Amino acid sequence: MQLTSKQSIASALAIASCSLIGQANAVETVPANDDWKVDAAIMYYGEQERVQAVEAIGNVQKAFGDTSLLDMKVVVDSLTGSSASGAVAQGESQTFTRPSGKGEYTVGAGDTPLDDTFHDTRVQLSANWQEVFNQDWTGNVGVYGSNEFDYLSMGLNAGLERSFNKNNTTLALSGAFTQDVVDPVGGRPVAFSEMVYRANYNSDAEYQAAFDQTRLSGDDTKQTSDVMLGVTQILNRNWLMQANYGLSSVSGYMNDPYKILSEVDSNGITQGYRYENRPDSRLKHSVYVMTKGALDSGVVDFSYRYSTDDWDITSHTLETHYRYYFSPSFYGQLHLRYYQQQAAEFYQPFLMAGDTLPDYASADYRIGDMTAYTIGLKFGQRLSGGHEMTYRLEYYQQNPENNGTDIPGQLQNYDLFPSVKAIVAQVSYSF
Amino acid sequence: MTNVFKPFCKTVVALAIASSLVGCSSLGVQPWEKDQFARKDMALNSEKLDLSLDDHIYFSKEGTSGGRSLAGGGCGCN
């Protein structure tokens, strides 16, 4: 973040200005960089009838003099519940082999197939060192690691910032490289292989041999290289703006090993299920602009993000936070977000039986046409000694949409693009 | 585009770049006018835990991510 490196100078100036003009009430200055700073939060994320997650996060910041800052973060999250498998609803109940190949689950007639297998715990650690070289130049380097049962992600990042124009303008260039290892439960499915069932085989050994035919041995990897160029500009005494351009190149295994597609006939009746297949490279661009303003009794920001990539997913995101101080130590904050996404070119809600298989296909609604919105409220209480307690409650709804696919026969009777509704509740404490 | 217009276009582009640079350098405030930017709530990362948690939710549930900061790799999110 471009402005933090100037905290100590800014703090001194602010304290001087405040004492000169007697400005007080909602204005709290940044504490001097000579102390530990701890932020901790626990968040619950719950989807109606689907994924439930609890995430605990702790961030410790330690300044070494005016020039060096160490930032360390630990995140632990636990996830349970059901996730859409990609299969479509049917007039009769449907049975699916679990991703591990061990056991089955059944989905009722008319219901969207949800895989209830998921149960995972993730631990993430990251550390970042920031160094102010002189009044114009600041640099940072960081490491990142995240581990869960079937996924390991490790990354390095670095950035350089240059201030101009009496520190009113900051240019930032940053980059990151991440190496992920994917080792799915039950192995990686062979692209477009058909799901097999125990009931169709005479013995466990025969079934296991058939199941193994649908799986590749060993793990696979994914590499992500990111570059971001940003500018932060102070516009006047109350407003600043930020603009970023980001380029991200991903290569390697990008399938979701737990997602499938139904293969339906012209009457919309499922004939079988196939595991999805996505391209092994993706090039993404994003443009992000944000403006933030200091108000007499609050603070407000507005941002817009445009994102596009060579999978043909484009998205527009509008977001705002508005904070109002009811008193110098108590505030309320409104958060609004609107997201609109255009489907990947290979997204399709199902395959048609008898058609030639495409090179790539996925029925994962998360890369389909979709709009989503968030509405949230947060309350913050400033306590003595610079401590702060906040409470946040948000509602997030995703509305997947048909990407123009003709819906055959009985599938027209079902909601193939059901909404996903989630609640986010969070308590945070800073000191 | 004909050759007649090329020098004209170059001049226009040069003027546009020059004026935007001048425009940028005239934006901003004096060091003693930055009191509002020293406010804790005006820092770009003033709510970094919230932003980090939000990034993780949207990264997991939507097809695009990043923009505000580096998207990086991530998780086997469901």
TrEMBL record, chain A:
**UniProt keywords, alphabetically:** Signal
Lineage, please? Bacteria, Pseudomonadati, Pseudomonadota, Gammaproteobacteria, Alteromonadales
- InterPro entries in the record: DUF3570
The molecule here is called: DUF3570 domain-containing protein
Q: Where is the signal peptide?
A: 1-26
Pfam families attached to this UniProt entry: DUF3570
Superkingdom, according to UniProt? Bacteria
TrEMBL record, chain B:
Organism of origin: Shewanella litoralis
What is the protein's name according to its record? DUF4266 domain-containing protein
Give all residue intervals belonging to the DUF4266 domain. Answer: 29-78
* Region forming the signal peptide: 1-25
Q: What domain of life does the UniProt record list for this protein's source?
A: Bacteria
Q: What keywords would UniProt list here?
A: Signal
What InterPro entries does the record point to?
Answer: DUF4266
Question: Which PROSITE patterns would you find in this protein's record?
Answer: PROKAR_LIPOPROTEIN
